[in-house]
Each structure stands twice: as structure tokens, then as C-alpha cells.
Amino acid sequence: MEAIRQLLEQNRKWAQDREQQDPGCFARQSKSQAPKFLWIGCIDSRMPAEQLTGMEPGDMLVYRNIANQVNPKDTSIMAAIQFAVDALQIDHIVITGHTNCGGISAAIKGQVTDDLQTWLNPLQELNSEYGEELGHCGCHDEKVDHLCEINIKKQVLNVAETEVVQNAWKRGQKLSIHGCIYDVASGELRTMGIHVSGPDGAESFTF
Ligand SMILES: [Zn+2]
């Protein structure tokens, strides 16, 4: 119970501090939200999306799973993208992987079972597909970071190819998809130079 008590106490302090810094912020936010970003990142505890980007409550929708994957068969993430794009009309979707990703490492090692195995299977397929390129990596850690970059590009494409995003572009909605990587060793968020802002961009996108 001690650990939970600590969470509750810290929450009370956070709410008090926030209300003091910006009086009425909770009352205003209780009415609606208008975030500009949907962040899709890894579940890893070392990459807290809002903190590392300086976002405040209401600024960003955050969706996290193991190894920041956008699997078209996963209705949870597909529903989140639909909600973000159709209902909230967000402007940007940011796919963010990170260095030293345990999910990617486990996929490469193949020492997983059950649900974790099922979830990591698309990464294992990417690992096989890019086997030759990944074979040039000097060590396991380097391979993990390189597959992480390949995975980010793959997930940007997966988002761009969803029906929801394609339909948004067709009706002229402004929406861009970006690929970023977070370095857990330095705290730096870097763009991977991948930005897709329309169906043509998705078609010409190669890696
Ligand atoms: Zn990770």
C-alpha cells in the first residue's frame, strides 16, 4: 500500500501546484480537449512522452505499446487513430521509437512466448526481411537500434496506409505523420527526417 499512497500523495501535490501556477486550468479543461498531436510511442518507462516534449495536459494524445507498433489487426490502436483523426482532427501523428528498446531486443533474440510472441512477431518478420542490412551491425545493441529505426519507418507507413488517414487526406484534412527516435542515453528526441503529409507522400516513401 505504501507505493500506492506515494502515487496519491504525489498526485495531490501535482494538482495543487498546477492549479497554483495556472488558476482554473482544471475547470477549463473539464469542458473539452483540442490536442494537436497523437504520439505513438513505446511503453518503456524511460520515455515519458509529455515530460520529454514539454507538453501540458490537453496538448497531446498519447498511445503507447511495446515497441511502438501500429498493427492494422489491433483494434485498440486503430480506434485511437480514428478518434484522434476523425473526432479531434489532430494535425500531427508522431511515431517515436527509442534506443535500447527491450521489445526489439526480445524480438531479435526470439526468447519470448505466448502473447508477447504474438505481439513481437511483426518485428521478427522485419528482422528477417532486413536480415542482410542488419547483418552489418557490429553487436546486438547496434542491431537493436538499427531495427528500431527500420521499425519507425515501417510504422509511419502503416499509419499512412490506414483507411482513416487515407480518407482524411481525400477530404482535404491537414494531417502529417512523422518518425522520431528518442535517445534514452541523452534525453534527446531526434527527427528521422520522415514526414508524410498526403497520399502521394506515402506512395513515394521508401526505405
Ligand atoms: Zn521500447
UniProtKB/TrEMBL annotation:
Binding-site residues, Zn(2+): 42, 44, 98, 101
Pfam families in the record: Pro_CA
Top-level division of the source organism's lineage: Bacteria
InterPro entries: Carbonic_anhydrase, Carbonic_anhydrase_CS, Carbonic_anhydrase_sf
Primary role: Reversible hydration of carbon dioxide.
Descriptive protein name: Carbonic anhydrase
A GO term for molecular function: carbonate dehydratase activity
UniProt keyword list: Lyase, Metal-binding, Zinc
Tagged with keyword Zinc: yes
Co-factor requirement: Zn(2+)
Keyword Transcription applies: no
GO biological process: carbon utilization
Entry's family note: Belongs to the beta-class carbonic anhydrase family.
PANTHER family the record matches: CARBONIC ANHYDRASE
Catalytic activity from the UniProt record: hydrogencarbonate + H(+) = CO2 + H2O
Cofactor binding note of this UniProt entry: Binds 1 zinc ion per subunit.
Organism for this UniProt entry: Parendozoicomonas haliclonae
Catalytic activity, EC: 4.2.1.1
